Amino acid sequence: MASVNAQVPVAESARPSDLDRLEHALSELVALKNTLHSENSELAESLEECRRRLEEAEQATRDLQERLLVEGQLRQDALKRIDDLVGWIEQLDPRFGASDD
Questions:
Q1: Which helix (H) or strand (E) holds 87?
Q2: What is the mean pLDDT of the chain?
Q3: Distance from C-alpha of 60 to C-alpha of 58, rounded to nearest angstrom
Q4: Is 81 within 8 Å of 74 (Cβ atoms)?
Q5: Mean pLDDT in residue range 52-70
Q6: Closest CA to 87 of 98, 71, 73
Q7: What local confidence, expressed as pLDDT, does residue 50 receive?
Q8: pLDDT bracket for residue 3 (50, 70, 90)
Q9: Contact status, residue 90 vs residue 96, Cβ threshold 8 Å
Q10: How many domains is the chain partitioned into structurally?
Q11: 6 within some domain
Q12: Is residue 14 a part of any domain in this protein?
């Protein structure tokens, strides 16, 4: 009879295989994390560039709107002066007043 203290032979455990798979999965996760971190950095830089360009475009739009207002005012002023000149000429020489078409 076998003694009570005899050890049963242990079959080759699947644990090294599980550990290898775990190590491989962790390595893939670390590589994926590094890839995603790199992509995130690139996207953040791209986003910052887009924000900068948008701010520049908004400033250019504000500048153009301001210029448009100034140019519109200048146009209105020029039209008023022309109307004043036409009125002045009509007062100086009635021949230029009402036309007989």
A1: helix 15-92
A2: 86
A3: 5
A4: no
A5: 98
A6: 98
A7: 98
A8: low
A9: yes
A10: 1
A11: no
A12: no
Q: CA–CA distance from 101 to each of 5, 58, 93 (Å)?
A: 134, 52, 18
Question: Cα separation of 52 and 49, whole Å?
Answer: 5
Residues 6+ apart with CB under 8 A from 89: 96
* Strand, coil or helix: 94: helix
Greatest distance between any 2 Cα atoms in the chain = 145
Sign of the dihedral defined by the CA atoms of residues 27, 29, 32, 33, in that order: negative
- Output DSSP code: residue 98: S
Contacts of residues 12-15 at CB distance under 8 Å and 24 or more positions apart, as own/partner, are none
Is 42 within a domain? yes
pTM for the structure as a whole: 0.54
In eight-state DSSP terms, residue 60 is H
What are the residues whose beta carbons fall under 8 Å from the beta carbon of 90, sequence distance 6 or more? 96, 97
- Could you tell me the residue range of the domain that residue 35 belongs to? 20-94
Q: Residue 78 and residue 12: Cα distance in Å, rounded?
A: 100
